[in-house]
Each structure stands twice: as structure tokens, then as C-alpha cells.
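Expect chain and fold; see below:
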Amino acid sequence: MEKIGLFGGTFDPLHIGHMILAEAVREAWKLEEIWFIPSHLPPHKEKASVSGRDRMEMVRESISQNDKFKVCDLELLRGDKSYTLKTVRELKERYPDKKFFFIIGGDMVESLGSWYHTEELMEEVSFVGVNRPGYSFGTDYPVSKVEIPPLSISSSEIRERMERNLTIRYMVPEPVYFYIKRKGLYEHE
């Protein structure tokens, strides 16, 4: 049975921390692939700053050089709140020959108790969490931990830098940097 990592997120925008996290988990757990799943309406955040299509294209362009990374548009096509439980159940139904692992950062590990139907979700998928600076990884739920090099980059920091007209080059994969520039994303008047 193929082992697949599911990496959901707003990816607003995708940054190098996301890429490092995905590769570290793939290697540590010997996963065949990592599927990046851009959310439509994340239940724990406000809506994204740019469209789902732009976020998906940034992911698609960034992962194109890694044949172990795929993009899954399931949540964007569904068009409602992006509840992990719905996504996992639908993927398990579509791909019964695959075993899924849901990848989350330390910030999400600490908030698992507030997720939509957490108890049911724990029965559906195994969680793999990664350390993140500033978070303790504290949870009562079974989450396996993968250590990654500490890297303090966040999508919100990138958006703030863009708002202040500061560079984000080298904080995001090169395709994301050029996509943002080409489309004029995150620019404020």
C-alpha cells in the first residue's frame, strides 16, 4: 500500500519553509508522495489574500521540479469550508489502495482539539507534526513528530513584507517569487 503525505494549508503564499517541511516528512516517513492541498476557506483563518487559483498555481509551479510532490485541488473544487475530515474521507474513498498521513506544523498540533470533529478525524488518518519555533508541540492527541531545521518564515510575514515594499526573494521558491511579481499579487496601493 502506497504511503502518501497530505499537506493542507492556505499557502498564501507557499514559502521555502513549506517545501523543507514536506521533504523532511517525506524522507523521515519514507512516503511515496506528498500531496499539497490548498484550502478554499480554512475554518481556523480568515479568507486568503489571493484567489485559490493563484495559490494553487504558485504551489504547482514550485513543486514541478520534484516528482514526489503533487498538488490536489479537491478543497478548491469543493468550494466550501475546508474541513480536513471531509477531505480525508473523500480521498480515502477515491484511493482505497493508499495510506494517508496528514502533515501539520507545531502551531496546528497545539490547536487540534478545536478542529472539526477531532475524535472522528483521529480515527480516519495518522497525523505527523513538525516542530515550529515558538510552539511547544503540546497535545493530547496521537501525533508523530518529525524534527526539521528551525526556520522562522511564515506566509503572514511574507505578506507583511510585501505590504512594506520589502523583498521576499529567497523566502519563497523562485517560481513563487516570479509568479507574485508577474501577477502583481500582495501589492497594496
The chain has a mean pLDDT of 91.
